[in-house]
Amino acid sequence: MIDSILDQMTLEEQVSLLSGADFWTTVPVERLGVPKIKVTDGPNGARGAGSLVAGVKATCFPVGIALGATWNPDLVGQMGAALARQAKSKGAAVLLAPTVNIHRSGLNGRNFECYSEDPMLTAELAVAYIAGVQREGIAATIKHFAGNESEIERQTMSSDIDERTLREIYLPPFEQAVRRAGLMAVMSSYNRLNGTYTSEHHWLLTKVLREEWGFDGIVMSDWFGSHSTEETINAGLDLEMPGPARDRGEKLVAAVREGKVEAATVRAAARRMLLLLERVGAFENKPDLTERAIDLPEDRALIRRLGAEGAVLLKNDGILPLAKTSLDRIAVIGPNAASARVMGGGSAQIAAHYTVSPLDGIRAALSNANSISHAVGCRHNRLIDVFKGKITVEYFKGRGCEGQPLHVETVDKGEFFWFELPSNDLDPADFSARMTMQFVPEESGDHVFGMINAGLARLFVDGALTVDGHDGWTRGENYFGTANDEQRGALALEAERAYEIAVEYEPSIASGAGINLIAVRFGVEKPLGEADIEAAVETARNADVALLFVGRDGEWDTEGLDLPDMRLPGRQEELIERVAAANANTVVVLQTGGPVEMPWLGKVRALLQIWYPGQELGNAVADVLFGDVEPGGRLPQTFPKALADNSAISDDPAIYPGKDGHVRYAEGVFVGYRHHDARAVEPLFPFGFGLGYTRFSWGEPRLSAGEMGPEGITVSVDLTNIGERAGSELVQLYVRSPKTKVERPDKELRAFAKLSLQPGETGTAVMKILPRDLAYFDVEASAFRAEAGDYQLVVAANAADIRFIIDLPSPSGYVLPPSHQATSLIR
């Protein structure tokens, strides 16, 4: 059928398939029955075509690093299937997920969205996620291909990565998704790879992806990440997003007419687009693009389970789990206690159906809610708290908010990120909007107003200009580099008096370079100070236990920005120290998208890392704290003691954050635990680490063969739960290689198994390694090579806790061309 349709298409119609129609849909060819389909973000929820901060409500699942911490592909696969059903509720056929870039450092603002520092763990979870999505008839889109491990100048920066490092660290998750999951779509990254934009990278998109790995799906650009006409199509980029066409359309038709692009190249790309439509059933069932909010009880239960399964208990000095019946007074303290920090920032944001804060979850878990006292202590927000309350929005034709409004609506949050305007009569390049609201302070004193805007805006309080985001507007880092830095203004306000707030906004060409977004965010807060920390300390002093919820949020862990350091922002470290001094039973619950430095660690009795676990946050953390379930998580990323201990951090800015448009991956394959092993740098918490509420005994490992063969080797380890509670244990299998002509890591993760066992129960962890698991990439031979010598299989609980070492001789060695499957052994 596809070829029949192609044969009837004009060149112009074929070309039309290769650009989006708008921000979220493809172009139909109605005369031939080719429908349009919708795509949607993202990795932790299907948002639909609404804005990043509004739109139809969606189910909020845990972020990528929280999934990485589960080490549970089966559960991640269930989430993939649930996300696919959510995508259908938004009328979408393509989900723009998963994100599988590697945790190169602790500072990447988008680490929260990715699974791990290790390519094997990342690949296993990605394969499960994709299989779950696609078995429901929705196409998964793996991203970002490739070398997108930082947000700094990401749209132009060149990630300079040698081929061995690419093949061993950064490409395997993409490769395994193609080979094992039947992947339907790939998204190229913004950055350049070794000097060439990935959307124009023929070696990457055609030589490796299609010819070596056999990929037959589509490659789409990241949004506004396509920069040329003939270069992208000839490299293998099928779909330019978003639409309408910028470098395709008439430009591509002309390139074919002029002989710069072969007609067969366009036909092949159009064929892949039609194949995608066929695979998602778009020809059989005309897509319904209607968006609906579906909040399912089974999704709620899955999110709650995932939250506990990814929670990593990093320290426990005998205080957890807490006994509900023996605690008369519980202090719940910190900036993340009463606020539900359920996701990171950027394109992964959604408008969640609901959120459960830790404070709400703890109250729901305890029969006597009166035993709970609460204090904030300090703030950590990067931006002024967004305004929440009734806001009337008037939209006008033209600039200046003049005349009668064309459209009026009411919203409840002071953040607007318009992908489309509420009326087709409004021109995105020539409109204005006025937002009006009342603000009634709870306390008298100085208040700070803040605003960021991609476009031009002014904020007025009782008619007086208070924040100017119009005159002298300059580009900053917000909204993916299209908005200004936050502008602020302070006023002394009186408690219980109503103040009239107005914000006037209009777009500006100056708000973007290539990407012209229209967005504004405004807020107000009363700064916290010493008295607030003292109140938190007093609250802790009068309690049996102090539960301290600290960390970051989606303003810090976000697309578009890297972190400035690995310290907790604001006065949180001081808050921890002072609360711990006031209450010896202090438990810290940490929410971040990666590691932080912990100078306070020795002063608290327990530490639980819970990431951003989705809308059931509070219920999941209460389940773990009170022992209803075990903390099932293990670290997917090494937590170093200090920023300087990261593999990508050095005195050379060319290595990170980059210099003169290039960032050099000088550490090569020595990322994460590979770096810590090779350089003898002791981490704060090793890769794979995590405590539980029970104990296990390990039996001697058993091997299916004494030497590597074409079908690989199976390693089995018996585990017995010798404690009094149900729990889970993770077994990791590393390979240690003999000395070779290239420097290799001390050990590399090649398999893992996680078992959940009842008290007294015994189970068997079964892991399989394949011929390629012994190999490194030999650049000269352009192949994976396992040299002859004595290998070792390292059976471990985490990267620093080795339980068994098994000798595995390989007397002859072998070579595996990259185009062969990992099981195809060539002597």
UniProtKB/TrEMBL annotation:
Gene3D superfamilies according to UniProt: Galactose-binding domain-like (2.60.120.260), Glycoside hydrolase family 3 C-terminal domain (3.40.50.1700), Glycoside hydrolase, family 3, N-terminal domain (3.20.20.300), Immunoglobulins (2.60.40.10)
The PA14 domain, residue ranges = 386-540
Q: From the UniProt record, which GO molecular function terms apply?
A: beta-glucosidase activity
Q: Name one GO biological process term.
A: glucan catabolic process
Q: Which PROSITE patterns does the record cross-reference, listed alphabetically?
A: GLYCOSYL_HYDROL_F3, PA14
Keywords assigned = Glycosidase, Hydrolase
- Of which family is this protein a member? Belongs to the glycosyl hydrolase 3 family.
What is the name listed in the Swiss-Prot or TrEMBL entry for this protein?
Beta-D-glucoside glucohydrolase
